[in-house]
Amino acid sequence: MTIRRIFGRRAAGLAAVLSAGALALSACAGGGAGSTTDAAASGAAGSAEGIKVGIAMPTQTSERWIADGNAVKEGLEKAGYLVDLQYANDDIPTQTQQIDQMITNGAKILVIASIDGTALSSQLDAAGAANIPVVSYDRLIRDNENVDFYVSFDNYKVGVAQAKALLFGLGLTDKDGNKAADAPKGPLNIELFAGSPDDNNAGFFFNGAMDTLKPFIEDGTLVVKSGQTAFDQAATLRWSQEAAQKRMEDILTSTYGGGSEPLAGVLSPFDGISRGIITALQGAGYGPTIADGLPVVTGQDAEIASIKLINDGVQQSTIFKDTRLLAEQAVKTVKAIGSGSEPEANDTETYDNGMKVVPAFLLEVQTILKDNIESDIIGSGYYTADEVAAGVSK
Ligand code: BGC
Which residues form the signal peptide (predicted)? Predict the structure, then answer.
């Protein structure tokens, strides 16, 4: 059976549920002329009015998820859906309970950004049994067939962009990735950090980065002096800033004479991790800015605290994933599902969750360096100039 047919069957199930809901509404509306007409008008399968959507987000400790949650909620409410938005404090049992509760409370569609992509099986089984379509948001939910759609960014390209920023920051390439005319011969020491091993995205980021860095490591231009080049060695459970700081401190102690030996750059997959790394580096005497010898540190998410650090010449780069666009895509997806049609996918090959290939819509990402904060971050209205200067968003 093709993915399309599986999706079609589940969407048809949902359309039937929505249609029955609308009929029930219409029956309840009874006397009031206006309300009867409204209810009758909403009797078409797929009307959003009053339909519950559960949105499960991982944590509020990273600002991107707060922006994601609010934007999806706002978009769905505008379209007439009732929204139950929950954050789980990066705690797996909290997230599973929240999703159980959403199902019990009558959610008809679920949008989930998982903490651990493999920990939601019983919730997804329950959703499947109740014909509740599930949209995997940003992070792919694994090992269950009841994942209907995936909205995300091109996660492999995020890793490629991080590595390209690092190579550029080290003077090895120009911004487009071509070998720089005056490139240093090396060897240049670098260290590698990866994201949380239970997040499906982390492997894509790391693979994209490593495929890009590989030729430079193989020809000896770059040396990972700690020898920690495997994903498992570089991984950072729950994307923890503290864990990253500790690992960087340990590497500086074991491999860089506590900070007295040259370290040119650090690949970091997320701004929170980048800030932990930078704290460790500065604590060991590097920097305080890149101009003073702080190693080049990459990032992801364009978090306001990191945008300020980039503006101040401390963090070298971040990858901007415009959560406004992702939220918009999630809302479009829910609307399509709600009306019984198939959401628009632009990738039906890459995201195998272990049970099936999940159709996906992937958005493009953008590298942010000091010189394009003005045009791409402030210019797009993501943050104001005041927020960038203060390092705090309102
Ligand atoms: C997201 C990243 C984010 C990371 C930590 C990943 O799943 O794709 O944007 O930096 O989680 O929250």
Answer: 1-29
